[in-house]
Amino acid sequence: GQNIDQPTEMTATEGAIVQINCTYQTSGFNGLFWYQQHAGEAPTFLSYNVLDGLEEKGRFSSFLSRSKGYSFLLLKELQMKDSASYLCAVRDGDYKLSFGAGTTVTVRA
Amino acid sequence: ETGVTQTPRHLVMGMTNKKSLKCEQHLGHNAMYWYKQSAKKPLELMFVYNFKEQTENNSVPSRFSPECPNSSHLFLHLHTLQPEDSALYLCASSQDLGGSGEQYFGPGTRLTVT
Question: I want to staple B56 with a disulfide (CB 3.0 to 4.6 A). Which of A52, A67, B43, B48 is the partner?
Fold first, then answer.
């Protein structure tokens, strides 16, 4: 089966940087997604990586190393509104996404 | 309405009831999905439809019955559910299957089976 691991919880201070790691072991690889999900709301798309390297999008960046089965999501200049669950998902075939259990990030003042 | 909408947002049902969840996407997408999200567990893919045709049934029990009358609407019919079926049921859509296109999620239906 598919195995996608990410930490359960992380806490950081407003204005700081937090890095959420995701490791995966899947039968195939066809891209990695990061989603943000606030409590009681829909997951929303943050980033997509299919090639190795860093993708930067404003305060959020995502990194992928396919040889290591590893990705991270970097959140800079943390704001209170960034408190949410962050989901790592791997597309292991044509379209099927396998999700990690999510990392709950709490931003403290 | 924009994006992906789901109704009802909350549902409490007994094990002998029959109910349906509705999803509608206003994005002109061709693919739609049902996911189950239980507390502290990964999202589980249940069903996938592409151009109204079911392309995936991820070993879902028959007490869950999907219906996709057109590319914009997706239903999940529920009957004789079990308490362990209590979860958040999320609908999603994407332009097509695969590619770099992300899935857009609805807000979900919080289901409680008593």
Answer: B48
Determine if residue A81 is left, alpha or beta; phi over 0 gives left, psi from -120 to 50 gives alpha, anything else beta.
alpha
B45 to A87: CB separation less than 8 angstroms, yes or no: no
Q: How far apart are the first and last CA of chain B?
A: 32
Q: What are the chain B neighbours of A35 within 8 Å (beta carbons)?
A: 105
A102 and B42 within 8 Å at the Cβ level: the answer is yes
Q: One-letter amino acid identity for A56?
A: E
pLDDT tens for each residue of B51-73: 888 888 888 999 999 999 999 99
SS3 category, B96: coil
How many whole angstroms separate alpha carbon B49 and alpha carbon B103?
13
Q: In whole angstroms, how large is the CA radius of gyration of chain A?
A: 13
Query: Is A101 in contact with B40 (Cβ distance < 8 A)?
Result: yes
